[in-house]
Design goal:
This protein is an alpha/beta fold and about 450 residues long. The protein has 15 helices and 14 strands. Helices cover about 35% and strands about 15% of the residues. The strands form 4 sheets. It has a 5-stranded parallel sheet, sandwiched between helices. It has a 5-stranded parallel sheet with strand order 10-9-11-8-12, sandwiched between helices. Helix 6 packs across helix 9. It is extended. The two termini are about 55 Å apart. About 0% of the residues have low confidence.
């Protein structure tokens, strides 16, 4: 028994049954090996390119009149060995892998059958039942390769998924980061190459990779690699967080992150990633629970109620400094955008005075997103050619200066609902027409929109 559970219950919970139906994804080393590509069309061109990138010895079997422009160019330049004819079983001699992209079904079946007789792995394009392996839709950035497979069920969809991954920005700097980490890894091994040190090397590099962003890893200089090796690894200390200006520093790292208008789907990719990666997220009760549910590390809240904004701000700053002094990574998440009535500038200066350079991650401001969600464009040709964003509540509760009325301007007041009666009076006194169309928007991103 374990915690009142039977041995069978423990096994079923901790080691659930595996769901089958997929392939084993591996990175096959084929450098210098003979790989055969039968066919010369666009699909074969992709196969040839893939094999050449893996430094294989590529043999192409295809009549010249069936070669597409790319394969023809690689054949005539001598990048591959070209057999200007149709497939012959003798082509399989000393071949490690076969890929065929042919229109003739009977030829494809013949190739598959003869490969299996010789125990040679084979892929017949667009015929999953004849394939020992599938070709992934691949992303490449230097040493980085990411393969997307639908296990032969929807190859075109695999291509779309690949494009979505590439366009997401998640892999920016990844290839360069891998190259620099490999340099660091080699440097550390040159100083401590004992087999018994392998667990320590792996743990150190794992921690460093989790603390540094891909962009920062990609920018590691040789001097910084030397510093990390000699001053941190060799002296038995944990890797420190990087400074925003380049060099490693003791202490933590602070991010000022915009939560946007409240819908988790409207967070930036970077904001969502940070919420799941940092040690501590600090927030106030203005940040919706749906956003906070993304947090994987520690979460601390300060209550920001009417009349207590300054006290809550001080409380949040103290929380952040305490964690930073312990070497933790911290996100201060704020509704909307930190630099648009979010006191982000004040926090930036506060942390700078205490020796920390905050990184600001913008958020989608409700000044634009809320009207849009309510079906109101803030600019519209022939109606509104400019936008002014101001606040309904100034410093220490003071009323803001009302801008002059401009007929072709959309004026957006943030944080104005609680004092709307007074705001209307000031607008009319300032010359705004009493019949001017007005939209009052609150919580528009959520189901309880008003």
């Amino acid at each position: 028994m374990q915690g009142g559970r039977s041995a069978q219950e423990v096994v079923q919970t901790e080691f659930p049954r595996v769901e089958g139906g997929v392939s084993v994804l591996v990175a096959l080393q084929v450098k210098g090996k003979r790989l055969l590509v039968v066919g010369g069309g666009p699909v074969a061109a992709g196969r040839v390119r893939m094999c050449l990138e893996a430094d294989a010895h590529v043999v192409v079997v295809c009549p010249e009149d069936a070669l597409c422009a790319e394969v023809h160019a690689r054949c005539t330049r001598g990048e591959v060995k070209w057999m200007n004819r149709t497939y012959d079983p003798a082509d399989l001699h000393e071949t490690s892998l076969v890929m065929a992209a042919v229109d003739d079904v009977a030829v494809g079946e013949q190739i598959a059958r003869e490969c299996r007789e010789r125990k040679i792995p084979v892929n017949i394009a667009d015929v999953p039942d004849l394939c020992d392996f599938y070709i992934t839709s691949t992303i490449r950035d230097g040493p980085l390769q990411i393969g997307v497979s639908t296990n032969g069920q929807a190859p075109k969809l695999a291509n779309k998924i690949r494009v979505l991954i590439q366009e997401s920005g998640l892999l920016d700097h990844a290839g360069s980061a891998i190259t620099r980490v490999q340099t660091l890894r080699t440097q550390i091994r040159s100083r401590d190459g004992e087999t018994t040190s392998s667990p320590r090397r792996m743990a150190f590099l794992s921690q460093l990779c989790s603390q540094y962003s891909l962009e920062r890893l990609a920018k590691l200089t040789d001097q910084e690699i030397y510093h990390i090796t000699e001053e941190e690894y060799m002296k038995g200390t944990d890797p420190s967080f990087p400074k925003a200006d380049g060099g490693p520093r003791p202490g933590g790292r602070i991010f000022l992150v915009g939560a946007g208008p409240g819908d988790p789907d409207l967070l930036t990719v970077k904001a969502a990633r940070l919420l799941q990666q940092v040690d501590l997220v600090i927030a106030d009760n203005l940040v919706p629970q749906a956003i906070l549910d993304l947090v994987r590390g520690e979460l601390r809240l300060a209550r920001k109620l009417p009349g207590t904004a300054d006290e809550a701000q001080d409380e949040l700053n103290v929380m952040a400094l305490e964690a930073l002094s312990q070497g933790k990574s911290v996100v201060r998440i704020k509704s909307g955008d930190p630099f648009l009535f979010g006191r982000g500038g004040e926090e930036l200066l506060f942390f700078r005075r205490h020796g920390y350079v905050a990184e600001v991650v913008p958020g989608l401001t409700s000044a634009i997103a809320a009207p849009q969600a309510a079906g109101i464009p803030v600019t519209h040709r022939g109606v509104a050619d400019q936008v002014l964003i101001t606040t309904g509540r100034g410093r220490a509760g003071a009323f803001p200066a009302i801008p002059d009325f401009v007929p072709t301007r959309t004026t957006v007041f943030l944080m104005g609902v609680a004092r709307i009666d007074m705001l209307v009076e000031h607008l009319i006194e300032k010359g705004y027409p009493p019949d001017l169309p007005v939209a009052i928007i609150g919580m528009v991103i959520f189901e309880d929109a008003t």
